[in-house]
Design a protein that fits this description.
single chain, mainly alpha, two-stranded antiparallel ribbon, 6 helices, globular
């Protein structure tokens, strides 16, 4: 599954596909605590709460949105996974080593 999720290295997502992570995670009216706070702030600027603009999209892999590379894995290990499924997959104990191995020893980003 870790390798398959790497397909998210390229692509864009419409804001409603992940906005619950920013504004109402699990019905809490707050952001997902597993999301990097600086990344969440950036996403909130790009996808304002309550926006109905169907043209608002963001890259799935913020560090290298137009390249097939290990950037996706670096992002999710640094809590910059756009989708809950990606973030969860990377931080499950049995999957984190597989995600780390995909990073090509890239240094972690600081929050």
């Amino acid at each position: 599954m870790v390798t398959l999720s790497g397909a998210h290295t390229i692509g864009r997502s419409h804001c409603p596909s992940f906005s619950d992570r920013l504004y109402n995670f699990n019905g809490t009216n707050s952001q997902d605590p597993s999301l990097n706070s600086m990344y969440a702030a950036q996403l909130k600027r790009q996808c304002p709460q309550g926006s109905t603009d169907p043209n608002l999209v963001v890259p799935i892999n913020p560090s290298s949105p137009n390249a097939v590379d290990s950037g996706y894995y670096v992002d999710i290990l640094n809590k910059r996974g756009l989708f809950t499924s990606d973030q969860t997959l990377a931080h499950e104990p049995r999957n984190s080593k597989a995600s780390e191995s995909k990073c090509d020893d890239a240094p972690p980003l600081e929050e």
